[in-house]
Write the structure tokens for this entry.
Amino acid sequence: MINLRVGDQAKDVANVDQRDGGAILATTHLSFWYAKFLAIEDVSIEMPDRKITAIIGPSGCGKSTFLRCFNRMNELIPGTRIEGDVMFRGTNVNDRSVDPVEIRRQVGMVFQKPNPFPKSIYDNVAYGPRVNRYQGSMDEIVETSLRRAALWDEVKDDLKKSGLALSGGQQQRLCIARALAVQPEVLLMDEPCSALDPIATTRIEDLMRELREDLSIVIVTHNMQQAARVSDRTAFFTLGEAGAGVLVEHDETQRIFTTPSDDRTEAYITGRFG
């Protein structure tokens, strides 16, 4: 793991060691604006290491915005503003001393629509290690990453083939392999199966369960059955009175889906709204 320095302005929570079975990601009183539009309001949550956390809730409640706060993708949009703390292993990722490129290496992301580069399968996976000046065997890291993404056996004899020529499900696993090649500790997944057929979805879900042995996963999904199948913990977001996304509750997945503590959660998971 690279050394992410904590600046003088980091909050007390940044000094908490979260490595030993605690939270790998956390927010404290997090609010986020697109210009004058408040997208999420006062969200405080901790997400455990080497677990799958699902983020569910109705459309427009800030789930994807929340996810992108952890690797500072939102700051690429002009006019955005953030308040509160966003923590990765006890470090405030928004501290001035933290390099966003390093954060994005350790906190990787897979998007809703597969987005392989217009390069070969090999070069897609090798891209990140090359940018990061990886000094080891590139062939080895490409193979290892493709194996971890459950794609190696399907492409090992055709690594020069364009990543764009793969099926949708294969493209998404290629994007996962590309993210894994830089050895992240966290994988953020924003609706990774919404564009895939049921067979490809099953493969991605199986892959997530396997990857949980080595890293932490946070997945945004509208598919509550998927959240129930793959996640260890589930966080339910909805729109608050001010029209911004708010966190209603966060608990073990089984408890969220069987005995939620908030009536709004029960109404959503039973289909009465959302």
About this structure: Residues 126 and 138 are 7 Å apart (CA to CA).
